[in-house]
Design a protein that fits this description.
Elements (H helix, E strand, L loop, with lengths): L2 E11 L2 E12 L2 E6 L6 H8 L7 E6 L6 H4 L2 E4 L11 H11 L5 H10 L13 H13 L5 E5 L7 H14 L5 E6 L2 H4 L5 E6 L2 E7 H8 L3 H8 L3
Parallel strand pairs: 3-7, 3-8, 5-6, 6-7
Antiparallel strand pairs: 1-2, 1-4, 8-9
Length: 231
C-alpha cells in the first residue's frame, strides 16, 4: 500500500530555489491536488518523486524507498508534455508499455482507447494535441500502479474530454494507491480531490483535506486558491 514521505526537501537550480524546505506525508487511497500557479515548483516536485531530478537537500521516500529503479515499478508518471516516440502507432505504444511495465493492463488500456475513439493504427505524429494527451493518460492509468503522478493531465483538452479524463482517473486507480494531480485548473478537478496542497514559490502554504477546507473557510477550493494566489 502506497505511502509517500517528504522531509525538508529543497531543490535548487543555480541561484533559483524551486522547492524550499517541503515536508509532506501522503497516505494510500487519496486523490491529491498539487495546486499552484506556473513556477510554483509543482513539476519539480513530481520529477523528484519520479526519480528524474535529485534533491539538493532533504529526503523523499515512496514505500520506504528512495526514488529510483525500485520505485519505477510502482509509480506511473504522466509528464506535462509528450514523451513518447511520435513515429509509433497506438497499438505499438501499448506493446511498448506492456514490455516495460509488468503492471500494465492491456485490456484496460484498449477499452479506454476504444471508448475515446482513438485510431489504433495512427501514429502519434498525426494526432491532435488533445488526442495525444488522451492516449498518454490511457496508457498511464492502465497500469495497476501504487502511485500515479499526473502533471497537468487536463491542460490542453476540451471540457467534455476533461470530464471523461477525471472519470477515467477515479475509476481506474485502486484504493491502495495515491494519485497526485498537478494543475492550476482547480474548478475542473475540485470535485474529485480528497486532499489539497497549495505550493507557492516552492513552499507548502497549505495542506489539508478538501472537505476541511470547505468547512473551515466556507468557500470552495477554487475560491480559496484565487485568494491565496491573487496578483
Amino acid at each position: 500500500m502506497a505511502r509517500i514521505e517528504i522531509n525538508k526537501l529543497t531543490k535548487e537550480f543555480g541561484s533559483l530555489t524551486a522547492l524550499d524546505d517541503v515536508s509532506l506525508r501522503l497516505e494510500k487511497g487519496q486523490i491529491v491536488g498539487l495546486l499552484g500557479p506556473n513556477g510554483s515548483g509543482k513539476t519539480t516536485l513530481i520529477k523528484i518523486l519520479n526519480g528524474l531530478l535529485t534533491p539538493t537537500a532533504g529526503t523523499v521516500k515512496i514505500n520506504d524507498m528512495e526514488p529510483g529503479v525500485g520505485t519505477k515499478k510502482i509509480v506511473a508518471y504522466l509528464p506535462d508534455r509528450n514523451a513518447l516516440p511520435d513515429y509509433m502507432t497506438t497499438d505499438q505504444l501499448m506493446g511498448l508499455y506492456a514490455d516495460f511495465f509488468e503492471d500494465f493492463n492491456a485490456a484496460k488500456a484498449a477499452a479506454m482507447i476504444d471508448d475515446l475513439g482513438i485510431d489504433r493504427k495512427q501514429t502519434m505524429k498525426k494526432m491532435s494535441k488533445g488526442t495525444k494527451e488522451k492516449l498518454q493518460l490511457c496508457l498511464v492509468m492502465a497500469r495497476e500502479a501504487q502511485v500515479y503522478l499526473l502533471d497537468e493531465p487536463i491542460g490542453g483538452v476540451d471540457p467534455a474530454t476533461r470530464d471523461y479524463i477525471l472519470r477515467t482517473i477515479i475509476s481506474n486507480y485502486n484504493e491502495d494507491a495515491v494519485v497526485i494531480i498537478s494543475t492550476h485548473l482547480i474548478s475542473d478537478i475540485e470535485s474529485v480531490l480528497d486532499d489539497v496542497i497549495f505550493l507557492k514559490e516552492g513552499r507548502v502554504v497549505l495542506h489539508d483535506t478538501a472537505d476541511n477546507l470547505r468547512e473551515e473557510k466556507g468557500e470552495s477550493v477554487d475560491q480559496l486558491f484565487r485568494e491565496v494566489f491573487k496578483c
